[in-house]
Design brief:
Structural class: mainly alpha
Helix content: over 70%
Oligomer: single chain
Distance between the termini: 42 Å
Number of helices: 4
Radius of gyration: 15 Å
Order of helices and strands: HHHH
Number of domains: 1
Shape: globular
């Protein structure tokens, strides 16, 4: 697959990952909390670095993206793989 197709797949994946997180924040009325805003900044920074990955040195970009992804996981209380419902909480 050409790189353009892979980039599209990566952007689509990150959008799909964001949907549950934003949905939970809307449901819990915490969309404008400091923690959610910090998550959004890290999330957007990751995507911007991914967009610029061809124009920047490879190793620093990969390190920065890794740190940003880990911070996003830390800032999302339920992480990306749990919906926070009563079934998951037990």
């Amino acid at each position: 697959m050409e790189e353009r197709g892979l980039d599209f797949t990566a952007y689509l994946t990150w959008i799909v990952v964001a949907i549950p997180t934003v949905t939970w924040q809307i449901r819990d009325h915490t969309l404008t909390s400091p923690r959610t805003l910090a998550w959004a900044v890290c999330y957007i920074a990751f995507i911007v670095l991914f967009y610029l990955h061809d124009n920047l040195p490879r190793v620093p970009v990969v390190v920065a993206q890794s740190v940003l992804a880990l911070v996003c996981c830390f800032l999302q209380p339920s992480s990306f793989w749990c919906c926070g419902c009563t079934v998951c909480a037990t």
